[in-house]
Amino acid sequence: MTIGDLDPAALWLAGALALGIAELLVPGVFLVFLAVAAGVTALTTWALPDLPVGLQLADFAVWSVVCVVIGRRWYRDFPVESDAPVLNEPARRLRGQIVTVTTPIIGGEGRARLGDGEWPVRGPDTVSGTRLRIAHVDGGTLLVEPIEPEA
């Protein structure tokens, strides 16, 4: 018995199963879409048993693209909610924090303490000891602004 003697629908179904198992073992979400495409191709070859191999591969390719496009849309429409939405965006995490100027800001540049470290800062000219708010981060430089008094 050779592989050519096996039912094409069974081969595609086995491929779908193998891709599904691989999805569980490999980090990320991608192989599941190919597994669905292989499953649909299995149904196609079961309904049309005399479908040539070239058309089976074309069917798999088309369904792969369709599944990936639908999957990407689905993941974009249903983002994962998190209690730390900016966990992997350190620059965004720094915005709004308060720093204390350690080296006076002269000509728009100076240094300030944030936590247990000192950072280069750019902002309005200010004397040492002044507290400022981080408005933005540009590379390794904090862009600071005066703290607005609470009303």
Automatic annotation (TrEMBL):
Keywords: Membrane, Transmembrane, Transmembrane helix. Residues 93-146 form the NfeD-like C-terminal domain. Coiled coil: none annotated. It is found in: Membrane. This is NfeD family protein. The keyword Cell wall biogenesis/degradation does not apply. It is a multi-pass membrane protein. It comes from the Bacteria. Pfam families: NfeD.
